[in-house]
Amino acid sequence: MPKEHPFAQQWNHNTRHYPKIADLVEGRHVILDVGCGEGTLVRYLAGRGHQVIGVDRDPAVLPPDSAGTHFMLGDATGLPFADDSFDAVVSVEVLHQTRMELALVEMRRVAKPGGLLVVLDTAKDGGLADLGWAVRDLVAESITRVGTSAWEPEDTKLPAALSWRQTRLAIDRILPGVEFRRIPGWRYLAIWQRPA
Ligand SMILES: C[S@@+](CC[C@H](N)C(=O)[O-])C[C@H]1O[C@@H](n2cnc3c(N)ncnc32)[C@H](O)[C@@H]1O
To answer: Is the pLDDT of residue 1 over 70?
Structure first.
């Protein structure tokens, strides 16, 4: 019998990809989650043995610390950390809510040389070019959510202002050589390793 998805009972377009993010940062000890919201990803990564700091600009969402976690108030566009601090920096569904390029420069700055950046986010659909992706996402969604329970935390949700093309161009500019994939659930995954 197939194993249940770890977030089957806490399902949304972000949590469904948390196991993938966890696999990507495997072996990287100290991790920063930028725009952590109420901290589910932070706690999940801590449960897999990482030391995780979550930072968010909204004091209302930040939870208390728990084993392996520390939560802090802070802004992605001016992260309150020294250069070269983290083995990995992740961010889920945040960059489209802020000045994306500034936030990416900051994430890049606080990653150690050789550190990994993982961004899961969305962009604005528009035009025929995005129609095929929208159909793919609708079909994938109807299949993958069978047997799951939808869950939406109470954090800030804003529509994306930048198109997929604009988003891709900005990410390519700040993170040269980035691996950029459009993945199911109206999301992209950007993976970049800072040169050692
Ligand atoms: C849609 S929620 C995503 C929360 C969480 N990352 C997740 O996986 O569910 C977006 C979060 O980003 C935070 N946020 C938006 N802009 C930010 C910024 N410039 N600096 C820090 N946090 C920011 C919001 O306060 C909110 O908690």
So the answer is: no
For the domain with range 15-125+151-193, which CATH number is right: 3.10.310.10, 3.40.50.150, 3.30.470.20, 2.70.150.10?
3.40.50.150
Say what the pTM is.
0.96
Q: Which atom of ligand 1 lies at the shortest distance from residue 18's CA?
A: 8
Rg, C-alpha atoms of the chain: 16
CA of 42 to the centre of ligand 1 (A): 13
Q: What are the beta bridge partners of residue 51? A: 30
Ligand 1 centroid to residue 2 C-alpha, Å = 32
28 closest CA partner among 48, 44, 43: 48
Across the range 111-115, mean pLDDT stands at 98
pLDDT higher than threshold 70 for residue 25: yes
